[in-house]
Amino acid sequence: MTVQDSQLLWDGPEDAAAVVILAHGAGAPMDSPFQAALAAGLAAQGLRVARFEFSYMARQRAGEGKRPPDREPVLLDRWRAVLEQVRCAYPGVPLVLAGKSMGGRMATLLAAEHPPGAVGVVALGYPFHPAGKPEAAEKRLKALMAQPLPMLIVQGERDALGDRAFVMAQTLPPQIRLHWLPDGDHSFKPRRSSGTTEAANWQAAADVVAEFIRAVTGSSGT
């Protein structure tokens, strides 16, 4: 894959009732095993999925070396540009803003701008706080409180950026739905002794996201 043809990766039927725009997390590209598995799982349920990369990751792919994430305004500018590109390609089709970790947090901030066409938000492993710093959660919680769209957070029970005990101690607004993945960490990977697998949690994530999208768009799926 070259930088030129990596602007968007598409999965799923072109005549889908909704399009999911899927952003990656801070450290993995749009074609990581997680992103690919989730896109395939959603496509199998009749959804169109557009994966994209933030600019720093595209530069890293181009061979400029490992780079840290861009600043928040730059990340949001990229999100806005992709949203407009997809909206123009699918006029009138409901759009769902989705992302893993950092990508999901940026989707939450973008949704607060009431972008045209957006009907819901999905955060896969929402980073409620930096690792090891639950006391620094205020800003990220505030973004959730101001969320104007229906939102789904899919979270591993052992997520180091917001585990079940921490999240359940918060009061989230009613438009936000939580779904817990058994024994999952930030990547949804469970311990071997848990009785479940990473693949099972990834599939469960795709299933619940598809269910959420059907609910917010009023579509029946496949």
From TrEMBL:
Residues 17-213 form the KANL3/Tex30 alpha/beta hydrolase-like domain. InterPro entries: AB_hydrolase_fold, KANL3/Tex30_Abhydrolase, NSL3/Tex30. This is KANL3/Tex30 alpha/beta hydrolase-like domain-containing protein. It comes from Novispirillum itersonii.
